[in-house]
TrEMBL record:
GO terms for molecular function: oxidoreductase activity. This is NADPH-dependent FMN reductase-like domain-containing protein. It comes from the Bacteria. Pfam families: FMN_red (PF03358). Coiled coil: none annotated.
Length: 91
């Protein structure tokens, strides 16, 4: 059997708030995937990615450098895991 290319998993930590827990929660799937020789893992932390608050729908508008920097990793991904918090209110 021919050797297969490694699958690329991108884990995105979606919370940017102070006191967040996302980096801890993201470490579990990242560590599990790293145990597999057929997976490569990238973790993207939106708190440090410095993405703009607003993106324009016009495809000819210039892209901010932070978006350009993330594009290759996102483009190469075979799978995504997004880690974010959900706030539940019970009445």
């Amino acid at each position: 059997m021919a050797e297969r290319e490694r699958l690329r998993l991108v884990i995105i930590i979606g919370s940017i708030r102070k006191g967040r827990f996302g980096h801890v929660a993201a470490e579990w799937p990242a560590s599990r995937a790293r145990l597999r020789p057929d997976f490569g893992v990238d973790v993207i932390d939106l708190a440090t990615a410095w993405l703009p608050d607003v993106m324009y729908a016009d495809p000819s508008a210039p892209r901010p450098q932070a978006v350009k920097d993330l594009a290759p990793s996102l483009r190469a991904a075979d799978a995504f895991v997004v880690v974010t918090h959900i706030s539940a209110v019970f009445l």
